[in-house]
Backbone:
């Protein structure tokens, strides 16, 4: 059975490759999306990628995921640490969601140590750069397949 996954990227992730390469590396968002498509193909799942700098647009995408996607991978960027709206959206749609971060947020500024999204997430992957998306796809597909 093919699962459809939604990969959502939040604010400033459209600048990957040029934004703070010492923290986020030189891999672009397009590179990450291609990596995700390749990984999905090996697992026999489909992946849709989206990015927005706007909190409400991310909430809308999460709401729209109901009935379309079996799982969500969410790199909410800075909204991780501020958005109760994203927490509520994830909790409301009841779609297994993995929280993802390119950097190890726990090794960074204190304010990045708090995640509202974690309370509704299946799990969290952080600190592995672009490879974290591959790990998240593997983890989400394994979770979805455990009941089939």
Residues:
């Amino acid at each position: 059975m093919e699962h459809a996954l939604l990969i959502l990227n939040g604010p400033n992730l459209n600048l990957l490759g040029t934004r703070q390469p010492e923290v986020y590396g030189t891999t672009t968002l397009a590179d990450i999306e291609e990596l995700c498509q390749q990984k999905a193909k090996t697992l026999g799942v489909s992946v849709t990628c989206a990015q927005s700098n706007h909190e409400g647009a991310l909430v809308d995408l999460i709401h729209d995921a109901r009935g379309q996607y079996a799982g969500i991978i969410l790199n909410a960027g800075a909204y991780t640490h501020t958005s109760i709206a994203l927490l509520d959206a994830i909790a409301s749609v009841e779609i297994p969601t993995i929280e993802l971060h390119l950097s190890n947020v726990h090794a960074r500024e204190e304010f990045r140590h708090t995640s509202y999204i974690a309370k509704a997430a299946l799990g969290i992957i952080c600190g592995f750069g672009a490879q974290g998306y591959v790990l998240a796809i593997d983890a989400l597909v394994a979770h979805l397949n455990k009941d089939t």
Observations:
- The chain has one domain: 4-145.
- The domain at 4-145 is CATH 3.40.50.9100 (Rossmann fold).
